[in-house]
Amino acid sequence: MLVDKKAPFFVPDYVQIEKEALCLLIDPETPNWIVTDKRGADIVKSMKEGKAFNTLIYDYSNVFDIDHIKAWVEIDMFLKDLLRCEFLSSEPFEKKDYVGRAGLLPIDKLNELWIHTNNSCNLTCSHCLVNSSPREDEGLSTDTIQKIVDEAVNLGTSRFFITGGEPFLRKDIFELIEYVCNVKNSELIILTNGMLLKGKTLERLQDFERERLKIQISLDGSKPEINDPLRGEGSFIQIVEGITNAVKIGYLPTVTSVVTNDNIEDISEITKLIAKIGVRTHHLLWVHKRGRITDNGTDFFPPIDKLIEATRKVKSIATGLGITVDNLDSYKFRANSTKGTRYDLGNACYDSLCVYSDGYVYPSASFAGYEQLRCGNILENSLREVWEDGKISKAFRNATIKNKEQCMACHIKFICGGGDSEHSFFYSENGAELINNSFPKDVGVHALDPYCDLHKEIVNDVIFELAETRRKMFERKTGFSAPVVFRSMGEGAVNCGLAMSDIGKSQSKLETPSSKFQNPSPASDQAQSIRTLHSNCVLSFDVDKPRSIVREFYGNAAETPQEDLCCPTKNSQEDTSHIPQEVLDRFYGCGSPTTIAKVSEGETMVDLGAGAGIDCFIAAKKVGKSGKIYGIDMTDEMLKVANENRRLVAEELGYDIVEFRKGFLEDIPVDESTVDLITSNCVINLSPDKKAVFDEMWRVLKDHGRIVISDIVSDEVTPPHLRANKQLWGECISGALTEDEFLTYLEQAGFYGLQTLQKVFWKEVEGYSFYSVTVRGYKFEKKDGCVYVGQKAIYHGPYKAIVDEEGHLFPRNEPVEICTDTAAKLSHLPYAGQFTIVNSNEEITTSYRCSTSEEGVSCC
Predict the structure, then answer these.
(1) Range of the domain at 90
(2) pLDDT band for position 143 (cuts 50, 70, 90)
């Protein structure tokens, strides 16, 4: 990626928000955002004022009192960062009015269906939306519900929600579960109060696959005196027992808590309680202005400032306990969507509907039973007719954030998506009024979400959290000092295999801007991606989907060898003669990093994404019995093959030094600064957060340790429709970085002496070229900072002059004063052999004794 120094620079109109050392720059219209430091924000501001490249360098050099070469290196690197983030262009960013989602989102698949199986319940909760109680109806018949499921599956539904009332009161509930999960092979999520999860009910639940059947349980207090006034006398003990029982038999339920004025101080205590039980996900619900709660006055509704405070407290405690707060993860998912993604209201009537217990169909579960929003009746019309032709269905599809005037003036409008349609509707007067099959502006679903300020704060929080995690990595003594984009929109975003409500649909194919220096603004007609928000009733169960796709793909490849899977290289007979054929048949690498790395006897090595273990076993032969090899993988099937063959390899070698550990690349289960060498073979492209992988690699390496990694890269940015392809994701295509991104991210992680050792064409997909590259780099941790004691470095050629990663200029054969850290760096590989370091008490002569390079060649 080249920066045209002569071209003018343009940045989009943006809003700047500062928090401590971080600056968030949001382009609201695209949308796009970056987080940088004050230096980076000032550079962007200077470009907005029209300053040229040379002026930027001059100003930067003067402000920070550094020489022009170092200023040039750092400015050039930052501008390339902006280009990659699509926050910089050689042409003005074109503004284009958003036309709204109506007519752009097709209704070709009903991804999910909610079914109120019954309105009868064993509780009379004070905040129930549909006024359920023990006296209410028992719901539709078994045959009717099964026919509804049949029709939904024919419309593309793969996920069902069963709610009530209390679904487990139905005598046929397990017949319905069996039908959805096993007969129709669909996912089912049951919303329950958990009180009946015991005895025979618990026994029957053990019969179902946990990946197919999932449970969400409601709990509104950490003790009886808080929960029971909201949910019913004696309910707390029975609910906690139900949650505990579900966990014991292998379910991972989400626990939902409605946040009211009565329990807001206790919400974080619920987080602590469920963590002790073994629950991993907590879901917060904001109070709706409908149902039984409206009979109890306004005391139930907590002030927004208290909600913000409580949410942040829950987040802080949950993070420490390893608990996911799925509301916040949902915001994080949206904020980190692909650049240009516009969220526009909810998915109701687009890919989601709700069938109530009397047969009437509603836009969503929160609207169920509200007669003015009936879309039709499933007992009188087909589900397709109700979905496609219903008056209310059309009105919801015509709704758009464009008709929420206060939202359109907000800088996070397309991240927030206009908030929750249900809350907007029930807090609006004359909400059901329609004009030409549409809700009027600022009325009904177009009214302002009463929790608007909460959305704003959470969005800002999650963006700064993403950036702060990255910023902390730069506090390490890596020597990297240039201003940088800590985080940008879409970084690490994975759309692979998600449903419409998660990734949305676009009328046209997306065009991804190339890495060339041109206007990347998604102002063109094809570059708009519109997505919808999921119902706030359930938000979890998709957190691990990208990783699960990879696990499934390579789990299958472990059980049955895949000859055509990502293998543009072969290993030598000498390296593999001691390795069982079962392992060789499951080699899915794209290079030979272990061979190229010149592994030495006694070294400690980590292989990331070890798979069946081939690179670990090759290295074990080279390091000898005094070495140590760790293989890291997240796929159980691969680890099983690796461990089964580890004993056979040890018998061949006469020693056992290989250890396989289950873990993720982003959190390597190896101690800090303990490893001489890290290899990986075609796995980093599978990670959704590659910068985190590189940061982890730097962490576990010893000082002066090295990485030798082979992976797939592309010439141009991989377009969204390829990134969303599950098969190509597993084949190392969808997640590939460009070569420029790959090297830059390694440099930003603190690696020195980066060199592409090998580059081989792999394949072409839809005109995009992909290559296998093997890259080497070194870790050097600064010890002293810039301390000068009179040392000088002399570069011996062959080039007339070189500039290192930190902007130091070394003309050939000219002594250059350096600090103690730079002297230490240049004395080790890969620089050793190219420099002579002269100490202050040594005379500079015309002859030097240089060290030997890694390739074994002396420069003298």
Answers:
(1) 15-96
(2) very high
In a domain, 512, yes or no: no
Phi and psi at residue 371, to the nearest 5° = -55, -35
The answer for residues whose C-beta is within 8 angstroms of residue 766's C-beta and 6 or more apart is 719, 722
Residue 88 and residue 123 in one domain:
no
Full 3-state SS string of 316-330: HHHHHHCCEEHHHHH
E-assigned strand segments in 715-855: 737-738, 751-765, 768-779, 792-795, 801-803, 809-811, 816-817, 835-838
Domain with residue 562: its CATH number is 3.40.50.150
Structure confidence at residue 433 as a pLDDT band (50, 70, 90):
confident
**Please, how many CA atoms are within 13 Å of residue 762, restricted to the half-sphere of its CB?**
30
Give the chain's domain count: 4
477 is a domain residue: no
pLDDT tens column, 106-142: 888 999 999 999 999 999 999 898 988 888 777 999 9
| 310, 256: one domain | yes
Q: What confidence tier does 844 reach under pLDDT thresholds 50, 70, 90? A: low
**In this structure, are residues 350 and 397 in contact, taking their beta carbons and an 8 Å threshold?**
yes
pLDDT over threshold 90, residue 508: no
Q: Which of 47, 62, 66 is nearest to 5 (CA)?
A: 47
If we measure between CA atoms, which residue out of 575, 531, 442, 855 comes closest to residue 720? 531
Residue 483 falls inside a structural domain: no
SS3 label, residue 833 = coil
Last residue of a domain, one of 44, 61, 96: 96
Within-domain flag for 498: no
Helix (H, G, I), strand (E, B) or coil at 324: strand
Same structural domain for residues 838 and 821?
yes
What are the beta bridge partners of residue 63? none
From residue 298, how far is each of 230, 292, 369, 444 by CA, in Å?
15, 12, 22, 20
3-state SS assignment for residue 692: helix
What's 720's DSSP letter?
H
The pLDDT value given to residue 852: 46
Do 246 and 215 contact (CB within 8 A), yes or no? yes
In the predicted model, what is the mean pLDDT of residues 205-217?
94
pLDDT at 529: 84
- Asked whether the CA dihedral 527, 714, 473, 605 is positive or negative, the reply is positive
Paired residues of 352 in beta bridges: 112, 348
Mean pLDDT calculated for residue range 794-799: 94
Which two three-digit tokens encode residue 555? 């789990």
Domain identity same for 760 and 836: no
